[in-house]
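Researcher: Re-running this chain for the archive, since the previous output was lost when a drive failed. Same request as before.
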Amino acid sequence: MQLNRTLLALILTGVVAEQCAWAGTVNWTYWTSQAPNTVSGSLMVGSTPVGVTYSGSYSFAQLNNNGTNFWVPAAPYLSSTVSNAPFGTGIITLNSAGTSTITFSTPVVNPLIALVSWNGANVMFGGGGDTQPYNIQYLSSGCGYWGCGSFSNTTPSSFSGSGELHGVIELVGTYQTITFTDTVSEYWHGLTVGVAGGLGHISEPAPATVTFSTAPVAPAPVAPAPVAPVNKPINAEKTTVKETHVVEDPCSNEEPGVYKRECQAMDEMDKDINKLKNNK
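Model: Regenerated structure tokens:
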């Protein structure tokens, strides 16, 4: 009997290890405060903090990692999508039938809900004013803190709990609010919320629309080509400018009635020269 138990433990360990090898790390909500019909906390999506608020009736909430850890053993929460069970003790417990809402401060992609002891539960997502489509993927279930159970009567937007259901569901799509109605009252069953890590799991805004005009566009003015300077040839001959000197007759600009002695002497010499020429 002891050998069979040991063999079973090894097989289960191998299954869990194989699941974790293909799974992603999940950031689970750290619940920090409560008020009547409200419990608040936050989780990290990559390096971005995202606020999480539960609205609706509840039995009790364990905050700031205080209380009992109902998330052990980890096995019913692990799958090819989830490599780590909810950490610590954070949990919100419900005991009355009614409608509840989970709200994220920014839209998230493919949120996860981990469940503890949802025995006999009948749960439907959406309805009322919530018209968004739901697409539930049932990732894992098994034996947890309060016993063993599984999902039954599953649809893309509803399920029932068979036995002591412990497990994880994934809501495929982008959500900022999640609304569900629990139709069965019991002592209590609990939940927490997570998102797989990575910045790609925050929904990105739609890309901007670029509109191209088909109107003709006037061509841009073309600047005139620069005119190359005309360079003078290095061996060009220089132009010689001849200066003309005019020798003025000093006796030609005399004022009337005025006659210089020099001019008289020159006149006398001219006369003498002319006489000598004539006497030859």
